[in-house]
Amino acid sequence: MLEKLKGNKKVVMLTAYDYQVARLVEQAGVDLILVGDSLGMVVLGYETTKKVSMDEMLHHTRAVCRGAQSTPVIGDMPIGSYATPNIALENAKKFLEAGADGVKVEGCVKDVIEKLVSDGIPVMGHLGLLPQTAEKYAVVGKGKEGERVFRESLTVDKLGVFSLVLECVPEQLAKRITENVKSVTIGIGAGKYCDGQVLVINDLLGMDDSFKPKHVKRYANLAETIRNAVAAFKKEVEGGKFPDEAHSFH
Ligand code: KIV
Fold this sequence. Notes:
With 250 residues, this protein is an alpha/beta fold.
């Protein structure tokens, strides 16, 4: 899906979870949209991604695909949905039926990736910090652990993932991986040498001003914008200023 982009311009991926945001993200020209299972945390209010279900993911994937009709959409397979290769295939097909163009799986799940790829399903890998199974959110791949992540990258690459998300890994490790795999590496907290970058859209937009990990750059402060807009509405309604003539029917 993205092989041709490797070595050319940087690939830009963003998450989206609903119709309107997907439309805007597409209008801004991103290369790929990920319906991430971060949905669980930023949209559904769960503490981690571990509670997200297939039904929730499919519901939001359908909405995103209605909004972004000419950008490839990747569905993030939630925990448990790829417990075995056969379960993975069944669920991956549901993502494609919902309108997605491919799926993402976390970890070096060899049998699962092999099965999906052999069935013609575009698969995005995800290594480094794996939120579905991680006990804590921290950089993965310092020292000896880096060799493991490097080897896993070569393995999933050989199995045919078209792209590989590297989450919270040291920059030099991401560089080494990027230089040694065919798939397009997409970093989040993985430094500047990846073939592309992804952020969670809510983080980029500054929807939660109590949360800002080091790798996140806020390009807007929607938390403040929304609070201010709602407070202005409340004030005008309470003060009898809204609705005025311009917003009333006669
Ligand atoms: O769920 C998600 O949003 C992700 C990205 C952080 C890559 O997996």
